[in-house]
Structures are given as structure tokens and as C-alpha cells.
Hints:
The complex is a heterodimer of chains A (89) and B (413). Chain A contains two helices and six strands; from the N terminus they run E-E-E-H-E-E-E-H. Chain B is α+β, with helices and mostly antiparallel strands and 413 residues long. In chain B, the strands form four sheets. In chain B, strands 6-7-5-15-16-17-14-18 form an eight-stranded mixed sheet. A six-stranded mixed sheet of chain B has the order 9-2-1-13-20-19, with helices on one face. In chain B, strands 3-8-4 form a three-stranded antiparallel sheet, with no helix packed on it. In chain B, a hairpin with a 5-residue loop joins strand 16 and strand 17. In chain B, helix 2 packs across helix 9.
Amino acid sequence: MKFIDCPPIGRRALSEFVYGGLVKHEPDHENVSESVWAEHVFYRHSHPQIQKEWWYHRPTGMWFFFERDTLTDVIHHVSVATKGYANEA
Amino acid sequence: MPLRLLKYAWKSPEEELRFFPQEKPLEKEYDVVIIGGGGHGMACAYYLAKEHGITNVAVLEQGYIGGGNTGRNTTIVRSNYLTSEGVKFYDESLKLFDDLSEDFDLNIFYSTRGHYTMAHTDSAMRTMRWRAEVNKHHGIDSEVVDVETIQKDIPYMDVECNGQHPVMGALYHAPGSVARHDAVAWGYARGAQMRGVEIHQKTQVTDIKTASGKVVGVETNRGFIKAKKVISMVAGSSPRITNMLDIKTPIEVFPLQSCVTEPVKPFMNTIVVSGSLHVYVSQSSRGELVMGASVDPAELHSTRSTLDFVEGLTDQMMDLFPFTSRLKIMRQWAGMSDITPDFAPIMGKTQIDGFYLDSGWGTWGFKATPISGKTMAYTVATDTTHELIKPFSLDRFERFNLVGEKGAASVGH
């Protein structure tokens, strides 16, 4: 079993977390062209890289950011999502 | 006794022809370069040579033939998909599979088993009925069956699932089959090689060069190779290749794990899938139970295995087949699945002239090996997208014209 050191809640099993996908800035729904929206929803470079992701901790209901290497699965940095989706994505 | 075997007894083993002839030296230029020496790449090379007379072709493989997802899948072949586009495409593949052993003069152990997809909920039953109707419309042998029929055909299955989530019915697809996946890649490879195609193993493509929007060649660990047409058929490594050309795709790579039990006497004739329990199982010709589940929870470009997977899978498997608690797991492994948002592949031309993409094979690539090779060969040889793969173009996402195939993926993801 893999364990993660999460600053406020300590050392926790990875199985307590749910993957929430890549952190991306969402364009303004009201004033966005279809091509920009498609670009946002679908298209990306997904080669191996270190990326910032949403992870949900079920037991505490907290959202975290993991900076994770998608080649080695090493988590380089963990932080708590506190400012809300609009400000953090 | 075959004459060949008798002759072999009198010769030294060195005189016997190797299955694959000696690799030729790598040339500086080819008409077509195929990246990826798995089933798809070999099939494409085979049909390019056989049906279009294009033989100045090099297949570049970074590892060994069929060592990627071709050798890591659970070998299931079926065509009971959900969309018309998918059904037509996979059914053509099934028809090609039927004749492969004869085409290759090599036994691919193609074994028609019948394929059950169990439904444990009302909504799953609804999807099964939907799939059955789409299938029948296209002339595919596919029907919804009730629990009594299932129990009669698979008496060793606990249809009550230990009382947790009883089976309500199933989608039965009689043509569902298994095949020896390595032999499919080897057969295509030998067939292509016999017709003049070159296969270069341990040759990794490190970059793709373009000039004024056209492909001019590939950079490899063995030097530059000129080519006007380059086809990427690398499944789980697709994002690495498209990144070389700055092409964005909706593909995300997730590991897909499988395992086999110790071999036991043959008892299981059919392929059993349960979408709700996230498991699929068939018995190999050696007697092992070949089992798989859904993809790992997070993006990862790795073929590492985990204990979490085996624990999760066996837990569900024991609900369906209680006696499997006595079996030992012999091996487990993983492949990299290039998943698309609509669970359909991405095939055909790209915005770069001379660069063709055969990707987005997620968890459904092995069954498409013959037809993807054939349609991609047609597309490359004639520079016209084959009718069957038109719906699978890369730009369907910007047109919001998706091919929603998730409901027919083997298990819920």
C-alpha cells in the first residue's frame, strides 16, 4: 500500500483518495467560442510529465493538489485546496 | 507424421528455417515508416504489402515484436458494440479473424466461445437491450438472455452473487472468441516480411521531422530515416509520439492490469464479463483463468502491477465464482491503455501531411487488430480515409461529434 504525507492530516493511505483529474482553468461558459471550449474539454498534451491534479480525501472530505509525475507515479508536492475552485484552477 | 518433421529429424537444428528471417540492415529511406511493431503495426504492414503492393516499408519497434499491449490483453474478440459505427467496424474485424489461421498458415488458436455480459441492475439491463437491438439491426448474433439460460449454460456461476448483487440477465454474443494474441502479431509480421517489409526491433523513434507542414522522416536511436509517410500505431505510447509533432489529442493513458490463475482442467467454455463487478474472465487453452478488470484510477505511463488490483479483482471474482477462492494467482501484468473520452479509437489522417494516427485503443484494441491494419493500410496507400474509420477521426471532438461507446466497453470504468 502506498502512503502520502499530507500536511494537515498526516500520513494517509493512497486508497483513501479519489483522483479528480488535471487542474485546468475553465474558460467563461457564457462568452466562449465552441473551438475554445472543445480545446478546453478535449485536447491536451498527455505525454509523461509532472502535472498538478485534484485529489479528494474521502474520510475528511478535503480536496488536495498533488504534483505527480505520470511516468514514475512519484508525488513531488502536496497542498490543500482552500481557496475554492475558481481561484485555484 | 508430416514429411517436414521427418526431414527435420535428419538435419541439424541450424539448417531449419527460422520463423522470422534475419533482420536486414536499416536503410536510409523508406516509402512508409510504421512506428510500433505490435499487432496493429504488423497488420498494417501486411495489408500494405498484400493489398496495395507497397513493400518498401519499415516497421520500427522500440522493444520486440508484440511485446506491448498486443501481448498484454486478455485476447477477447467480439463485435457486440453500442453504436452503428462501432458495430460495423468490429464486425469486419471478426470476419477477418475467422480466416487468419489459413491466411498465415499459422494456428492462432481462434476459439469461438460465446460471450456473456452480465447485468446486475435495471440500468445495465436497459443497456444490454439497447446493444442487442443495435447489434441485430446490423445482423450481429446478439441477444438478451434470462437468468435461467445463463445458469444452464454456466452452472458453476453463482447467479445470486452471494446475495450481494444478483444477476438479472445478460447480453449473449455467440461469435465472441479468444485467440492467441502473440500468434496474431507473429502471423502478420511473417506475412509482411515474406512480401518484402522490413521489421526493425530495438529501434526507437525519438523525433519526427517535418518541413513546411509535411513529414520528411523520423529520428531514431539508429539514425535518421527518410520517409514521406509515417504511421503511429503505438497505442499506450501515442501521447509521446503526438507530442513530437505538437498535436494535441484527447487521449489519456491509464494502466490496465490483468492476471492469470494456475492452470486447471477445462471447465469454462464461455467468456464471462460483468460490467457492474468490473471483471472479465475466460479459460485459456492451457487451463488458466485469464482475468481482467477496469483501468487503474489515475493517469500513469507505466506497466507496473499492484496488489490493490489483485485484491479488488479476486474479491469480485469470488462473488461470481465462489470456487475460485481455492485457485492461486500465477502471474499479473499491466499494459498502458490510451483511453479516449468516448471510448472509440482515433484513426486516420492528421493536420500534418503524411502523418497518420492509429491510436485511442484503450481497452478495446486487440479485437480491432485485423480491421485497423486493413483500413489504415487503405488510408495510407490511397490517401483517402477508409469509409469504416471516417467516424473515428481526430477532429470529431472539435465538432462535438463523438462516438459514445462507453456503454459497450467490457467493464464500467
